[in-house]
């Protein structure tokens, strides 16, 4: 073995290569880490609250939409029933008006006869 690679020399070299760690740096690092963890925790909690609020608003909107669609459907059904009722009444009125056509023809004939009598007098 050469002198440079002896175990005693390697041990000395390793001890010399490791610098001393300043305890203030470790304390600062721990403080900053705790600050970051606290900030991350706060951000996560805020995000949770925000997402919960958004989900609640979305659920409310879905419920409002459902109610609106149900009411619209009910109103459309009622309107369709009214239209069919109006159509039926119009048809009944139209049938009943056919009798007035016969009366009109009789009135027209009577008027013609009255006009004829007037012209002779």
From TrEMBL:
Gene Ontology cellular-component terms listed: BORC complex
Domain BLOC-1-related complex subunit 6 C-terminal helix: 19-118
Pfam families the record matches: BORCS6 (PF10157)
GO annotation, biological process: lysosome localization
InterPro entries listed in its UniProt record: BORCS6, BORCS6_C
Protein name, entry field: BLOC-1-related complex subunit 6 C-terminal helix domain-containing protein
Organism: Megaselia scalaris (Humpbacked fly)
Organism taxonomic ancestry: Eukaryota, Metazoa, Ecdysozoa, Arthropoda, Hexapoda
């Amino acid at each position: 073995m050469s002198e440079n690679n002896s175990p005693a020399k390697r041990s000395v070299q390793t001890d010399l290569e490791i610098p001393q760690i300043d305890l203030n740096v470790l304390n600062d690092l721990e403080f900053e880490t705790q600050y970051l963890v606290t900030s991350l925790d706060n951000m996560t909690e805020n995000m949770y609250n925000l997402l919960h609020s958004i989900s609640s608003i979305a659920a409310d909107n879905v419920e409002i939409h459902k109610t609106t669609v149900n009411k619209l459907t009910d109103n459309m059904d009622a309107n369709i029933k009214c239209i069919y009722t109006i159509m039926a009444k119009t048809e009944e009125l139209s049938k009943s008006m056919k009798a007035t056509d016969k009366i009109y023809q009789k009135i027209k004939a009577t008027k013609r006869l009255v006009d004829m009598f007037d012209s002779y007098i």
